[in-house]
């Protein structure tokens, strides 16, 4: 199941993408509009800023803003930043691979085969959608 952190991160990015201008937006405005706790949203926006999706301006007129065009923000990248691996099993992950302790042979593991298919289809959907695709 998608975590609240990822859901709220997507909602915040979508909010910023839908604005007519790219002026900084205060956290409180995003939080109120999207029904997200300010404290929780602060940590999410900081993570997105540190990952290169957002910029921040301090002081009067400050806030967060997109530093990339929404069409250049892959939802697969956003998902990985906020949620972590796309695969549901570590042995089926491209970027976070780990061998399962209880598995004798990955090549014959039915769970791994199924979860690899789930990963591939999920990745295909996430990679084919940008922030612009879902925001407008």
Automatic annotation (TrEMBL):
Transmembrane segments: none annotated. It comes from the Bacteria. The lineage of its organism: Bacteria, Pseudomonadati, Bacteroidota, Flavobacteriia, Flavobacteriales. Signal peptide: none annotated. InterPro entries: Tscrpt_reg_Rrf2 (IPR000944), WH-like_DNA-bd_sf (IPR036388), WH_DNA-bd_sf (IPR036390). Keywords: DNA-binding. NCBIfam families: rrf2_super (TIGR00738). This is RrF2 family transcriptional regulator. It holds the Pfam family Rrf2.
